[in-house]
Amino acid sequence: MYHSKISGLGSYVPDRIVTNDELSKLMDTSDEWIQERTGIKERRWVTPGSDDTTATMGVKAAKIAIERAKIDKDDIDFIIFATLSPDYYFPGPGVQVQKALNIKTVGALDVRNQCSGFVYALSVADQFIKTGMYKNILVIGSELHSRGLDKTTRGRGVSVIFGDGAGAVVLSREENLDKGILSTHLHSQGEHAEELSLIAPGMGKRWVSDILEENDPNDESYFPYMNGQFVFKNAVVRFSEVIMEGLKANNLNKEDINLLIPHQANLRISQFVQHKFGLTDDQVFNNIMKYGNTTAASVPLALTEAWESGKVNDGDLVVLAAFGSGFTWASAIIRW
Ligand code: UT7
To answer: What lines the ligand 1 site, CB under 6 Å?
Structure first.
């Protein structure tokens, strides 16, 4: 039996900064409303026509993570890619990474768990390493939201929140069982699947041919939908529960947390959780102000920036937690 540890981290965001004021030219919104309700000041959206896609951004983040892990790309035994915005309907972007990095024919798995996708992916990777099956696994979270948002007033409740970007880690075998990922905790509640969803195109109800045939200018089914207040209320409860569950499973208390990295859903949600756990501003890392909500990319993007800024130190207890569409939620308790 082994543990797994994060041996390298990387991130990538597109150059183009989109401010709240810029959005207010596209739709009826304001910098004041967005900052007050979400904490977001700006986000990155890919430049139309650029080479940035979910897969290519993931590859850029992955290259940095591999370099920092001080391993060769051919030491990667497995690839896991979490996203809700794949380049293709199928295949998923995991195989695009295998090709782009020119890694020998290792397995590539795609995870479809939206905002909690990265923590789910990390958990899957952790199991493979614990059993001894693999030594180094590349875990990526990447999203390109900006091309699929309704950028009119009709979509303002959703489109002002989401941003593009990517984060990646290399998860490696750790022989010291006091270090690395101590445990992960995964949950879902499918009865709320449509409260935060993008239902078309999908084979179940509406495929592209149906949308084209109906040609309805009022069709909103191919834009993301979110019942914002309902999602918010569930998020604050589930974040707290799943963090507590992780601490209890390891006989730890909230006082033991050195750094909490919550999925960057909304700054108000992070602040609620911070106060509930009695943590200081220094103990909770947030970068939603700069990037918006990047769903599966948000945790690795925040973790990488926290590590780069010296906030993650040897021996620290680092807690990752996420909640989102599905609903799905998850946590990872890590001894760095
Ligand atoms: O990452 C996955 C998990 N996602 C989340 O956790 C997100 C959770 N939800 C939220 O963060 C918040 O619910 C939002 C930020 C999405 C919305 O904030 P809210 O305080 O819940 O606003 P609301 O949806 O209740 O809307 C309040 C008002 C409405 O107008 P009326 O009906 O009161 O006249 C909206 O039409 O604000 C209006 N509104 C806006 N106004 C200006 C909605 N979006 C905007 C906007 N700009 N962008």
So the answer is: 29, 33-34, 37-38, 115, 156-157, 160-161, 228-229, 231-232, 235, 265-266, 269, 293, 295, 324
Report pLDDT digits (tens) over 23-52. Answer: 999 999 999 999 999 999 999 999 999 999
CATH number for position 308:
3.40.47.10
Q: Among residues 234, 138, 174, which one has the least CA distance to residue 5?
A: 174
Residue-range definition of the domain harbouring residue 328 = 181-335
Rounded to an integer, what is the distance from CA 301 to the centroid of its chain? 8
pLDDT, one tens digit per residue, over 267-288 is: 999 999 999 999 999 999 999 9
Distance 228 CA to ligand 1 centre (A): 6
CA dist., res. 167 & res. 70, Å (int): 17
**Dihedral sign, CA of 54, 55, 56, 61?**
positive
For residue 205, what pLDDT band results from cuts at 50, 70 and 90? Answer: confident
